[in-house]
């Protein structure tokens, strides 16, 4: 009888556990609906019930702390996240959010400690390098670029490090990495709210690039990739003599890609140039350049171009929406500053 009783009790226990887990999962999904609607108070209410049913569920705990953060209840958010960070299954996002909470509590020292701890545990986390870089930048510590560069090197598919590095280099004497990183960002996040800002930086960046009569002689660094880039761009200087416009950039960038693949394509494989080459071969390169340069400089002119080139615009738009732009590992050519 005792054995039968034990088996019956075990079945009941397992059934109750399964029901509780199912209920917790349903509550979690309900909370996420509230969260997407911006109703953080209701999300918190539901998540507090869900966590009681499934105390070990880290995703529920993470969302609970995140909703407290969105609701600006930072002490409560920190109370939830502190034990999460000690868990072996805490991911890099946990450290990023915890750092953001400390920052909201105006405690940048603890924020920095958390980011560093997270980077030590996740040395290939693009979001953590980006967050740490933004913290340093806010403190006017310009070594922030080292964090963004490390993020680009270790997780090349994460876009925000390109965004920040692009802006950083634009305001320095650099003439190359701002335009390269900016264009990579645009292709990873073509619909980003930051796209107009970066498109403008690209347009102005090309003016800055061709400001010198001889691009090669103006560069005193030793980066061979940059030297190759400037050498190839220098061949197009006569096309820039009449000023930088969308039309001149289409010609400059077309000639650049053709020359690059003749001279350096095999030595320096680079996804951005591969993509430009593909667009050129498929007859969409002009539409791509119009999307980058004319759209940011003269919206009525871009709208007029779209109207008069409806087929070209539609073809490029469909192509752009149907693919994901990714930088493969091993195509990092910047030297750490």
Q: How many runs of DSSP E, i.e. beta strands?
A: 0
Q: List low-pLDDT spans.
A: 5-21
Q: Into which percent range does the helicity of residues fall?
A: over 70%
Q: What composes the largest sheet?
A: none
Helical segment count: 18
- What is the mean pLDDT? 91
Q: How much strand?
A: under 5%
Rounded radius of gyration (Å): 26 Å
Structural class: mainly alpha
Number of domains: 3
Anisotropy-based shape: elongated
The end-to-end span amounts to 75 Å
Layout of strands and helices, then pairs:
Blueprint: H1 2-36, H2 40-53, H3 58-70, H4 74-85, H5 92-104, H6 108-121, H7 126-138, H8 144-154, H9 160-170, H10 177-188, H11 195-209, H12 224-234, H13 237-240, H14 246-263, H15 271-281, H16 285-297, H17 299-308, H18 310-321
Question: In words, what does this structure look like?
Answer:
The protein has 337 residues and is mainly alpha-helical. It folds into three domains: 63 residues, Serine Threonine Protein Phosphatase 5, Tetratricopeptide repeat; 81 residues, Tetratricopeptide repeat domain (Serine Threonine Protein Phosphatase 5, Tetratricopeptide repeat, Alpha Horseshoe), CATH 1.25.40; 182 residues, no CATH class. It is 72% helix and 0% strand. The chain contains 18 helices and no strands. α4 runs antiparallel to α5, α14 crosses α16 and α16 packs antiparallel against α17. The chain starts with a helix and ends in a 16-residue tail after the last helix. About 5% of the residues have low confidence.
């Amino acid at each position: 009888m005792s054995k039968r009783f034990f088996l019956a009790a075990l079945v009941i226990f397992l059934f109750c556990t399964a029901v509780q887990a199912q209920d917790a999962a349903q509550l979690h999904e309900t909370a996420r609906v509230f969260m997407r609607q911006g109703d953080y108070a209701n999300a918190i209410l539901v998540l507090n019930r869900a966590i009681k049913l499934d105390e070990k569920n880290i995703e529920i705990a993470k969302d609970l702390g995140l909703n407290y953060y969105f609701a600006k209840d930072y002490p409560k958010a920190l109370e939830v996240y502190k034990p999460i960070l000690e868990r072996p299954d805490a991911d890099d996002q946990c450290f990023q959010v915890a750092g953001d909470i400390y920052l909201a509590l105006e405690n940048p020292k603890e924020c920095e400690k958390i980011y560093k701890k997270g980077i030590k545990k996740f040395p290939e986390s693009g979001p953590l390098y980006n967050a740490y870089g933004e913290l340093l930048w806010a403190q006017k510590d310009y070594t922030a670029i080292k964090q963004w560069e490390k993020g680009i090197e270790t997780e090349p598919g994460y876009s925000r490090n390109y965004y920040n590095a692009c802006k950083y280099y634009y305001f320095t004497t650099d003439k190359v990495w701002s335009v390269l990183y900016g264009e990579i960002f645009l292709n990873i996040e073509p619909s980003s709210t930051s796209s107009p800002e970066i498109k403008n930086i690209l347009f102005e960046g090309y003016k800055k690039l061709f400001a010198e009569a001889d691009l090669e002689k103006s560069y005193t660094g030793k980066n061979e990739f940059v030297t190759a880039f400037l050498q190839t761009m220098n061949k197009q200087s006569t096309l820039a003599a009449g000023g930088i416009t969308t039309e001149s950039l289409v010609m400059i960038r077309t000639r650049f890609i053709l020359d690059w693949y003749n001279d350096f394509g095999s030595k320096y494989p680079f996804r951005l140039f591969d993509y430009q080459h593909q667009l050129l071969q498929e007859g969409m390169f002009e539409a791509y350049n119009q999307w980058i340069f004319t759209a940011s400089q003269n919206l009525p002119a871009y709208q007029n171009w779209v109207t008069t080139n409806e087929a070209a615009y539609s073809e490029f738009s469909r192509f752009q929406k149907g693919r994901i732009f990714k930088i493969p590992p091993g195509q990092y050519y910047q030297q750490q500053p």
